[in-house]
Predict the 3D structure of the following.
Amino acid sequence: MKPRFWFVIAGAAAVLALVIGLVAIFSTGTGPHGYVAKNYTRAAHLDLPGDSDNRAYTSPKPPSVVAAEITSKWRPQSQYADSSGIYLRYSDDAVIIQPQAPGSVIHLMDADRAYRRYHSHVGGVWGWSSPHGESFRGRGPGAGK
């Protein structure tokens, strides 16, 4: 057989491997969003109204167990718990785990929306990766020069 034939076969195999790899990566999802979607039951009827990015899931387990499962796979940047639920903040997403008989309801949402919605619980508790004033020059004498 001619060498050109083997180059064509190798090229086709490489393209096929690339397609399979991309499908595997994007179909399973990554981060806490993908983990929750894969491991808990979707409950569209519990989505929060007025927030198209919010997705609700349920688990028969209590919130503390669900939070431990999620945080063992995906470490949050910040977390807070009170009697109303457990609030996990990631770089772009938030996972809110609240008790609901007989287990838990898990809300996935944008971190900024979660902060605004649950400010009474997480305000002053959820830290951000950098101070809010760090992005402008008015930080004081000698700053930004």
Notes: The first helix runs from residue 3 to 28. The chain has five helices and six strands. Strands lie at 41-42, 55-59, 78-82, 85-89, 93-100, 103-110.
